[in-house]
Predict the 3D structure of the following.
Amino acid sequence: MTIRRATQEEVHLIKSYGEKVRIEASLGYLANSPYAADELKGFNDYLISEENGVLQGWVLVGESFDFYTSQPTGMILELYVFKEFRNKGLGKKLVHTAVSYFKHIGLNRVHLNVFAGNHAKKLYEKLGFHEVSTVMEKKI
């Protein structure tokens, strides 16, 4: 298993899974959202896990600005591991690689968003992430 930066061809392939990934990650909340796809359009910095030419998963990294601290921050925008490769530590390795990347470029904080009920939240908590803010909703 190798983790490396995705090629342009691989980025194109990854983006073809966009709607499927959004629906799964948001537990359907962002299904058919015309704005969800636009949010990630400018980001193409994917780190992928592959073995023998088979794509296993990826993490999309970017830089953002933390309005609470007025500092630049690393941002994990998307983490996805194909079902057949889950529960083998790939998500953990991808997140660790993303964090190492952010440290390397001089950032000292990493943010991510996760939907309530997404199983990845448990992984993030095990890796030391904690809640900073909670968005709540009531349908009326």
In short: The mean pLDDT is 92.
